[in-house]
Design brief:
Blueprint (H helix, E strand, L loop, with lengths): L1 H12 L7 H18 L5 H18 L10 H15 L6 H11 L10 H21 L9 H12 L3 H17 L8 H15 L21 H17 L2 H10 L14 H16 L2
Length: about 280
């Protein structure tokens, strides 16, 4: 593992950046799966916060390292392990490894075995590498879901838009790399924008532009560009990944089942967003 890390760091320094989309999405699904197996009623929201932080670390890691060389399951475990620490959600590493093996439907090696010890060693090596990549100053991750929920509560948006925007926010973190190039406030605002467009509604604000409820630095142009990128990404996403996400996010109420509708439906939504873009 250390040889692979050294090689990838050298390639990154030379400008060779790897971005295998399928492996990233598989890793994101594994992170969600590990988190879902640790959920209890009391800690469900807290677990999603840890999952979100894990996704943030994973995306940054895979900007530098080769997804084919370092297995998504190991990156998922290391990312989740760090997130448990940074989000004050302490869990034994053995619990995480057990959850990962359960997700893969394989028996976990005995904790005294050489195989298990090697897994733990690799996780610790990846943990150190991830910390080096993201920098200790960026360990604290803003939560787009929390930002979104606060704005929704303060403005009493309709339930359909609220529910839809929450799950779109989750899918943005899973399926795109927007988190690497935009603020969490922008991701939250884009989630609300897409949800409103789908429901045929306009977002209204009594005091100025609606997106300034999220941040005064945001522009409508940035939000529209992000919305277009997300809808195109989701439209082209592999059907197996969509199925995995549908299962991981459990049974959705009818008001936001449309998140997993057909390619044609998402093409229609993208058309609405593009028409809105050209109209301004």
């Amino acid at each position: 593992l250390q040889t692979t890390i050294t090689k990838d760091l050298k390639n990154y320094a030379e400008g060779k950046i790897y971005s295998t989309i399928l492996e990233k999405r598989q890793c994101a699904c594994l992170i969600q799966e590990i988190g879902s197996r640790l959920k209890t009623f009391t800690f469900e929201l807290r677990t999603q916060v840890v999952i979100n932080a894990s996704l943030y670390y994973m995306h940054h890691f895979y900007e530098v390292f080769t997804p084919e060389a370092i297995k998504p399951i190991m990156v998922a475990l290391a990312s989740f392990y760090i997130a448990c620490k940074t989000e004050d959600f302490s869990r034994k590493l053995s619990f995480l490894v057990k959850a990962a093996y359960d997700a893969l439907r394989k028996p976990m090696p005995n904790e005294n075995s050489d195989t298990y010890k090697r897994i733990v060693q690799n996780i610790h090596s990846l943990e150190a590498t991830i910390l080096m990549v993201i920098g200790f100053q960026t360990l604290e991750v803003k939560q787009p879901h929390v930002i979104l929920i606060n704005v929704i509560r303060e403005n009493k948006f309709p339930k359909e838009i609220s529910h839809t925007s929450y799950y779109i926010c989750t899918n943005i973190l899973h399926l795109t790399t927007l988190v690497l190039h935009h603020s969490m406030e922008a991701i939250a605002a884009t989630s609300l924008y897409i949800a409103a467009k789908w429901n045929g509604s306009d977002i209204k604000c009594a005091n100025g532009e609606w997106y300034h409820m999220f941040s005064p630095k945001l522009t409508l142009e940035e939000i529209k560009a992000m919305a277009d990128e997300f809808t195109l990404t989701f439209q082209e996403c592999d059907a197996k990944i969509k199925d995995q996400l549908r299962l991981l996010l459990k049974v959705l109420p009818p008001s936001y089942q449309h998140i997993f509708l057909s390619r044609e439906d998402w093409t229609g939504l993208r058309g609405k967003i593009q028409a809105s873009n050209s109209g301004n």
